[in-house]
Design brief:
GO terms for molecular function: pyridoxal phosphate binding; transaminase activity. 43% of the residues lie in helices and 16% in strands. By secondary structure, the chain is an alpha/beta fold. It has two domains: 33-66 and 343-452, Aspartate Aminotransferase, domain 1; 69-341, Aspartate Aminotransferase, domain 2, CATH 3.40.640.10. The structure holds pyridoxal-5'-phosphate.
Length: 455
């Protein structure tokens, strides 16, 4: 793109486009980065820079960029039947096939899909339908959801309320009523010298304490990301999720796994709940279901919940115009075909995850890094002022992370920063050679960042 066009677009963008999760005044002054093309693990910006996208867009481009088959699937479906709804006793073939395919892929008896356009809407859906599930069984007071501080479940009223991001709660009067939060499992910041597995049990028992405080007859469900993404890839100890599951069963509290990031191979398993060995009653998915090529989300219910909703729920007063959109379903089916037929998830688990873990641990040796944690293909580097002193952070948390992120970008590497943690989530199709490139660029960025801080 020539310089004049780029400047013109940036001007139009600043004048007319409000960006999500941005300080729009600061962005307008700086000028938006415009991306123009993608291929495999790389994207190109309007100035012609080739960037290794170690964040897969926004945790979502699992099969990598530029797969024409997905475009073909969309075009074919658009020509055949561009749209029909799933209201009024109707639906379309790709929608049915996708629901069946998801039932096949998801663990246990998670057999019933309710389609939405996004992860946020999927979480809105579970809030309403799970409350409805208890209400039609004469337990209307069993309506409280427990989530976690610093959890992320999207941006709608229910999604942001179920999440525990304080900055989000401040805007728009959240959380909405009857949503409570417990502290998340965050070993690096919270466990001190405790044995990790013991810490995992302790962190899980915060849920039991909260259920007993509220009364089990009031608690409808617990919701959590198997690995907390947005806050900084918090990976719980192995003991955490089985204990959460035990507690949920004991008090008949539904267990909801928000698999929007972890689903579809991110951990090297198809779902994060499989990675940790627990069985959710309800699951929400989005992002990787289409590798980000087209918007689609879903809430998946097990036989028990769907059975009650069908037998006693009456007409479900819930749904989107585009619930089960045939074009989105066709693209998702093609994406799942590629993930399965090309053994993308298996490749990620068997070949890439162990190699990435080794190289990530090497980055952990850097003087700026307090911890390098990773599970499958999602990881974080905690940048700290003094490697030997755990639990100490840079003043004005977030500045150093942003600095490191910007330096990495100048070296042609996209990482995300949350506070002072550098987050990793590459396409699942990344090769060993590209992992080496990632390592070299990240190491250089850490070095330059340390120098800039006088370390
Ligand atoms: C991205 C995300 C969501 C929200 O999905 P949208 O499609 O952005 O609405 C929900 N939960 C988790 C864990 C996410 O990462």
């Amino acid at each position: 793109m020539d310089h004049k066009t780029l400047e013109h677009l940036q001007h139009l963008d600043a004048a007319h486009h409000l960006h999500p999760f941005n300080d729009n005044a600061a962005l307008a002054a700086k000028g938006t980065r415009i991306l123009t093309r993608g291929e495999g693990c790389y994207v190109w910006d309007a100035e012609g820079h080739k960037l290794l996208d170690a964040f897969a867009g926004l945790w979502c481009v699992n099969i990598g960029y530029g797969r024409a088959e997905l475009g073909d699937a969309a075009a074919t479906q658009m020509r055949t039947l561009a749209y029909y709804n799933s209201f009024f006793q109707c639906t379309t073939e790709p929608t049915i096939r996708l629901a069946a395919e998801i039932a096949e892929l998801t663990p246990g008896d998670l057999n019933h899909a309710f389609f939405t356009n996004s992860g946020s809407e999927a979480n809105d859906t579970i809030l309403r339908l799970v409350r409805h599930f208890w209400a039609v069984q004469d337990q209307p007071r069993k309506n409280i959801f427990i989530g976690r501080h610093d959890g992320y479940h999207g941006t709608t009223m229910a999604g942001a309320s179920l999440g525990g991001m304080k900055g989000m709660h401040k805007q728009g009067g959240l959380p909405i009523p009857d949503i409570h939060h417990i502290d998340p499992p965050y070993p690096f910041g919270d466990a001190g010298d405790m044995d990790p597995e013991e810490y995992g049990l302790l962190a899980a028992r915060r849920l039991e304490d909260k259920i007993l405080e509220l009364g089990p007859e009031r608690v409808a469900a617990f919701i959590g990301e198997p690995i907390m993404g947005a806050i900084g890839v918090y990976i719980p100890p192995r003991s955490y999720w089985p204990e959460i599951e035990r507690i949920c069963r004991k008090y008949d509290v539904l267990l909801v796994a928000d698999e929007v990031i972890c689903g579809f191979g991110r951990t090297g398993e198809w779902f994060g709940s499989q990675y940790f060995g627990f069985q959710p009653d309800v699951m929400t998915i989005a992002k990787g279901i289409t590798s980000g090529y087209i918007p689609l989300g879903a809430a998946i219910f097990n036989d028990r919940v769907a059975g009650v909703l069908a037998a006693q729920g009456g007409e479900l007063a819930h749904g989107c115009t585009y619930s089960g959109h045939p074009v989105c379903a066709a693209v998702a089916l093609e994406n799942l075909r590629i993930l399965r037929d090309e053994r993308v998830v298996e490749h990620a688990r068997v070949d890439i995850a162990p190699y990435l873990a080794t190289r990530w641990a090497e980055l952990g040796e850097h003087r700026l890094v307090g911890e390098a944690r990773i599970a499958g293909l999602m990881g974080a580097l905690e940048l700290v002022p003094d490697k030997r002193r755990r639990g100490e952070y840079f003043p004005g948390r977030g500045k150093v992370g942003a600095l490191c992120r910007d330096i990495a970008l100048r070296h042609g590497l996209i990482l995300r920063a949350t506070y002072d943690a550098m987050l990793l989530s590459p396409p699942l199709v990344i090769t060993r050679l590209q992992v080496d490139e990632l390592f070299d660029k990240a190491w250089k960025a850490l070095d330059e960042c340390a120098q800039a801080l006088g370390k």
